[in-house]
Amino acid sequence: MTMELTWHGHSTWHVDVDGTTFLIDPFFQNPMTELSAEDVETPDFVLLTHGHADHIADAGAFTDATVVGVPELTTYIEEEVGFESSIGMNIGGTVECGDAFVTMHRADHTNGLNTDYEYSLGLPIGFVISDEEPTRESDPDATTFYHAGDTGLMSEMKDVIGPYLEPDAAALPVGDHFTMGPTQAAIATEWLGVDHLLPMHYDTFPPVEIDTDDLVSEVAASEADAEVQLLDGDETFTLE
């Protein structure tokens, strides 16, 4: 099955799995997209990796969708943003969302939100989206996409996500400063064993501006057997 992956800049992705649609970390106030949140059709599911403003800022435009995240974050989003439907899940869990399966894994990052309300927003995470339920038995026909969220390099990529969840493509943060930079992202690509690296979380604001040639060189210097897909904002990559 094919999977349509559209990058709207920063960490914002629209994913279509056989007609089931996901919007991950909606933040359209970034220079890589020509769209506003109002231009985007409401997806079936909004997936949130953590509560930093550059990942949830435009969630309120999609309150007719079902929001998915850790329970602490989905509680905040329901009560303060206005979603009526949510799936609170946690690290290691898999839930069926329409025609896809969503597995949650942790990210090495922080989580917080400046608000007048006292909320614990839980742990930062990433999502693995697949058209087949992940099992211990490898499925060569499955199509699987890993959105790592905001993370540094972590050994679970080598020990768990790569060998057991078997992503075909990974959207990894590469902007450095707040997340991995090109060198650690290249190592992550190698550890995950993906065919495609889709860089994200870069060139949004000065601290995360990079030279993408450095990323390509680092991946080439690693033992990764992956193509670096440098997408323009609002460009779609078809994963088959």
From TrEMBL:
<dbReference type="Pfam" id="PF13483">
    <property type="entry name" value="Lactamase_B_3"/>
</dbReference>
<dbReference type="InterPro" id="IPR001279">
    <property type="entry name" value="Metallo-B-lactamas"/>
</dbReference>
<dbReference type="InterPro" id="IPR036866">
    <property type="entry name" value="RibonucZ/Hydroxyglut_hydro"/>
</dbReference>
<dbReference type="GO" id="GO:0016787">
    <property type="term" value="F:hydrolase activity"/>
</dbReference>
<feature type="domain" description="Metallo-beta-lactamase">
    <location>
        <begin position="9"/>
        <end position="201"/>
    </location>
</feature>
<dbReference type="InterPro" id="IPR050114">
    <property type="entry name" value="UPF0173_UPF0282_UlaG_hydrolase"/>
</dbReference>
<keyword id="KW-0378">Hydrolase</keyword>
<comment type="similarity">
    <text>Belongs to the UPF0173 family.</text>
</comment>
<protein>
    <recommendedName>
        <fullName>UPF0173 metal-dependent hydrolase SAMN04487946_108186</fullName>
    </recommendedName>
</protein>
<dbReference type="InterPro" id="IPR022877">
    <property type="entry name" value="UPF0173"/>
</dbReference>
